[in-house]
Specification:
The chain has 243 residues and is mainly alpha-helical. The protein is built from 10 helices and 2 strands, in the order H-H-H-H-H-H-H-H-H-E-E-H. The chain has helices spanning 12-29, 38-58, 63-73, 87-108, 118-129, 134-145, 152-155, 160-172, 178-193, 215-242; strands spanning 194-199, 207-213. The protein has a two-stranded antiparallel ribbon with strand order 1-2. Strand 1 and strand 2 (207-213) form a beta hairpin. The protein is globular, with a radius of gyration of 18 Å. Mean pLDDT is 81; it is low at 198-204 and 232-243.
Length: 243
């Protein structure tokens, strides 16, 4: 089923419609899955996420392709509306996102490539900014932004200064929700203090040896963790009030 996207790989709109339809269908069926089928469906979801990233690679991770894809994904798996996508599925996809991203770079890309991957994570910041629920903010912050420094193949091709500035600009917008503004400010501070240590080995292309966060950055990451706990506590309190 995943390979069906190859049938119209040259047709961008058809490919996007295929990905969109798959994730829309799966978000609808996910709550009905029993314990005997859940593993198979999650495996299929992982493979389809992998295929969407392979498609982005075929487009050289261009900003337009990323925006076109995430405009669809924000309608369901990256939607801030908890009625559009079950939280369990959002949590799973956020957990495997960087794993599948790294696999794609390993399998289909030259690891020494300098193609900029920043637009992908700008799109993820957009998804966080549009979230109306604390859960999506939590999983995107914890599973993607706080873990990206552990993926050297990705982080060496991401402009952390651009991400920091983008998060700050979104947080300044009057329409930005207060809760999202706090999360965006944490992202701004985190990427502002993220230091990517690059070394050149025997005259070859620069490669990332380590991504380090300063003491201030570690403190910010801790603050973000506390913010996640605060969000969860407030969500529980809101649920209790509504009952």
């Amino acid at each position: 089923m995943v390979k069906l996207s190859d049938c119209f790989a040259s047709q961008t709109s058809s490919t996007l419609n295929f990905f969109d339809t798959f994730f829309q269908m799966f978000t609808r069926e996910y709550p009905r899955l029993d314990k005997f089928r859940i593993d198979k469906f999650l495996t299929l979801t992982r493979r389809m996420l992998h295929r969407t990233l392979v498609w982005l690679h075929s487009k050289d991770w261009s900003e337009k392709s990323v925006k076109d894809l995430f405009a669809r994904l924000q309608l369901h798996i990256f939607s801030g509306d908890n009625l559009a996508c079950p939280e369990g599925l959002q949590g799973y996809i956020s957990e495997i996102f960087l794993q599948e991203f790294t696999k794609v770079l390993t399998e289909t890309d030259n690891l020494k490539s300098t193609v900029d991957l920043t637009p992908v994570f700008m799109a993820v910041i957009d998804a966080l900014n549009k979230s109306n629920t604390p859960f999506l903010r939590q999983v995107l912050t914890k599973n993607i932004f706080q873990c990206i420094r552990n993926h050297s193949d990705i982080i060496r091709r991401v402009n952390t200064a651009v991400l920091a500035a983008y998060a700050l600009e979104l947080g300044k917008e009057p329409k930005c929700l207060v809760k999202n503004r706090r999360a965006l400010y944490n992202i701004f501070n985190y990427f502002s203090t993220l230091k990517v240590r690059i070394e050149t080995i025997e005259g070859e292309q620069p490669d990332v040896i380590a991504a380090e966060v300063s003491d201030a950055g570690e403190a910010i990451a801790d603050d973000a963790g506390e913010a996640i706990a605060d969000d969860a506590g407030e969500a529980i309190a809101d649920d209790a009030d509504s009952e």
